[in-house]
Amino acid sequence: MPPPLALTLGEPAGIGPDLASAVFRRRTELDLPPFYVLGDPAFMARRAALTGPPVKIVACPPEQAAAVFATALPVADTGAPATAAPGSPDHNSAGAAIAAITLGVEHVVAGRAAALVTNPIAKNVLYRSGFQEPGHTEFLAKLAAAATGVLRRPVMMLWSPELAVVPVTIHLPLIEVAAVLDTDLIVATAEITARDLAARFGIAQPRIAIAGLNPHAGEEGAMGSEDIAVVAPAVARLRSLGIAARGPLPADTMFHAAARAGYDAALCMYHDQALIPIKTLAFDHAVNVTLGLPFVRTSPDHGTAFDIAGTTGGDPSSLVAALRLAATLAGRGGAPAPDPGKSAPS
Hints:
Layout: E1 5-8, H1 16-25, H2 27-30, E2 35-39, H3 41-50, E3 57-59, H4 62-68, E4 73-77, H5 93-109, E5 116-117, H6 123-128, H7 136-148, E6 155-159, E7 164-167, H8 174-180, H9 183-199, E8 207-211, H10 226-240, E9 244-249, H11 257-260, E10 265-268, H12 271-281, E11 287-291, E12 297-300, H13 317-330
Helix pairs in contact: 1-3, 5-7, 9-10
């Protein structure tokens, strides 16, 4: 029997624990792959009782999770207590979230889990506890390096059947983007993207569309020099490496259906240039995929939703998509290619 998926608790006060219980209740209807939660079993039992019919919780190691999954939600005890009330992070929140991520990486690196799916965390809660990493992705890369002895650069991709996007710069104020962006960074990001699209998604010759930084991709220098001086040389270097890259392309014409038919992923220069189009097309089912790691990691593309935590108001669609994509990528069968003709859900 193949290893199950590992699902982290996420921020205990957020919506992650509720969604884990919700999708488990519908596991047969949704035809979900077996998964187990990394967290506090007693806490999971308390939260499940708030949001629907009773869920039987069984504390067990990953090796027993697939068998347990038929009748109960398996929980691998991290040893870190979770005590937060819905919507109200407390003094144990950061420790519980970090312990789940840390143990999850240990399990997936050791082959005890097929892939890692992470529920949302609250970075401000972690920062108040002394957490030093910029975010989830960087922490995962640090843990992976410690476990394997190989330091890899992680790349964030947001994936949906309609569109896949990769931001070159992520959580930066817009005023700082041009100063950080350089040709080497674009090339390195695109190389990792192309490699993982081939190795994990089964796309033999990935096509990468590269957005310009400025309006109209700079209009030949009339609206800024960065597209000529920084982006275009990156595209040329990528093509010399055998990667099917083109650009810089005007971002305002890259994301309609006919344009999306011409590429497998869009490389964007900053956060909103990437996330606005995918959240418009696939708000409830896009998946955050970390490229460049030595294991598969996916995550729902939403936050902690403190305002609806502990209720039945959460939409599990993105978590379902994250679990399914993780199982597919971990099985090395390739994920379905983006469908540029598919319209946004109504």
